[in-house]
Design a protein that fits this description.
This protein has 17 helices and 11 strands. With 418 residues, it is an alpha/beta fold.
């Protein structure tokens, strides 16, 4: 099996991302031209056949999501590209925008055509403000060439793309919170139902997709789904862009086929551990992801295999941590992050994070109470089951997985935490 592949990233470095003519010279907008000759159902069937899962973290089936959005009645629908990418150790969407902005626009146009939308919105995280000029130029040049605006390529389909920037809030990566932010409101999640697909941005039927998801749709339509599903495994076909970082010799963005093991990602692609230290654990999917010990490093990177050991693909982040770091110190850093990023709307998340941090601080100092571990676990499960949005539901993934895989690090010996 190839260690890295180039399907989603095939255009990286092959054209000038500031020039649509350069993009057209390598076959750009082939996917849009092909999509406009197809019916909505034909495109949805292709997405279903390719088993493309949402790449923002939730892994919801894209074909199913597009089918649901297309079935919602409405004369004015919306497609949103979620480019918030707020997960720590996740920077693959940034790489797509930097290297292939026109393919992202292709994906949005295809999504808009498929679900019957007239407007698209790119929600760009504040920290990516340096990418605004690139996207503004790509939108303007695409419109000038007739790929955006009224009656695209004489098809009768009209679609506009608008660019919005966030203000740096992690929670705005959640769909309804992102929508609230675009509308100029405080970034806090909405009550559901009504669901976004029925009542989203400006109360219009709305489809929200991640940057990578849209890029895959454009790539698959360009080459056909058979070329895509040739990668990966039977249950996890295709490829995934990962963000490899931490105590690894060659951090960066890589496109890999599903089915590689975590060991291959860290040691073959990443070159091994910095300074040849020992691997202690790794975290998948950003701060909201679980951690896994070195003992399960041979687990294949697929949705089903990771699920068996309590891990998820999530946003595609792969954080490598060596034996110089105590697990409890890492847990505290994650807890500090979620204390800072919680919007405070719901009690389970607002108070749960605060109380768990107090317990974690006692573990860090080796001064925990006899029932602190049980209390922390109980609070964490309450948050997972009762929090208002995905932030609160997953904020304790690191803690719970640390307790599962490193119980010895929560023990007190000689009055100090070992």
């Amino acid at each position: 099996m190839l260690k890295t592949v180039s399907f989603i990233t095939e255009n990286f470095g092959k054209y000038d991302p500031k020039s649509i003519d350069s993009y057209l010279s390598i076959g750009g907008f082939t996917a849009v031209k092909r999509a406009l000759t197809m019916s909505s159902n034909e495109i949805i069937d292709m997405a279903k056949a390719a088993s493309i899962k949402g790449r923002g973290g939730a892994a919801y089936d894209t074909g199913r999501k597009w089918s649901q959005a297309a079935s919602v009645p409405g004369l004015n629908k919306v497609v949103i590209c979620n480019a918030d990418e707020g997960e720590p150790c996740t920077f693959k969407d940034r790489a797509i925008i930097e290297n292939d902005p026109f393919r992202l626009l292709e994906g949005m146009i295809i999504a808009g055509y498929t679900v019957g939308a007239q407007n698209g919105y790119i929600y760009l995280r504040e920290e990516y403000s340096h990418l605004r000029p690139l996207l503004i130029n790509a939108i303007a040049e695409s419109k000038a060439k007739g790929f955006l605006g009224q009656n695209i390529l004489g098809s009768g389909f009209s679609f506009e793309i608008h660019l919005y920037s966030g203000a740096g809030a992690y929670v705005c990566g959640e769909g309804s919170t992102l929508i609230e932010s675009i509308e100029g409101k405080s970034g806090r999640p909405r009550i559901k139902p009504p669901f976004i697909k029925e009542c989203g941005l400006f109360q219009l039927p709305t489809l929200v997709n991640n940057v990578e998801t849209l890029a895959i749709a454009a790539a698959a339509l360009t080459h056909g789904i058979d070329d895509y599903i040739a990668f990966g495994t039977e249950k996890s076909p295709g490829s995934k862009i990962i963000s490899l970082a931490g105590n690894v010799k060659k951090p960066g963005t890589y496109e890999i086929p599903f089915g590689l093991t975590i060991r291959e990602i860290i040691y073959d692609i990443g070159g091994g551990i910095t300074d040849d230290n020992e691997l202690k654990f790794f975290q998948l999917g950003g701060a909201s992801g679980s951690i896994g010990p070195a003992s399960i490093v041979d687990t294949p990177y697929t949705y089903e295999d990771l699920g068996k050991v309590g891990l998820t693909v999530g946003s595609g982040g792969v954080l490598v941590v060596d034996d110089r770091t105590r697990v409890i110190d890492f847990v505290k850093s994650i807890q500090d992050f979620f204390i800072h990023e919680s919007c405070g709307k719901c009690t389970p998340c607002r108070e749960g994070n605060r109380q768990i941090l107090r317990i974690v601080d006692r573990f860090v100092d080796g001064a925990q109470n006899p029932r602190d571990l049980e209390t922390a676990e109980r609070f964490a499960h309450i948050m997972s089951n009762c929090a208002f949005c995905g932030l609160g539901e997953t904020a304790q993934s690191t803690l719970l997985s640390a307790i599962k895989y490193f119980p010895e690090e929560f023990e007190v010996k000689g009055g100090k935490l070992e």
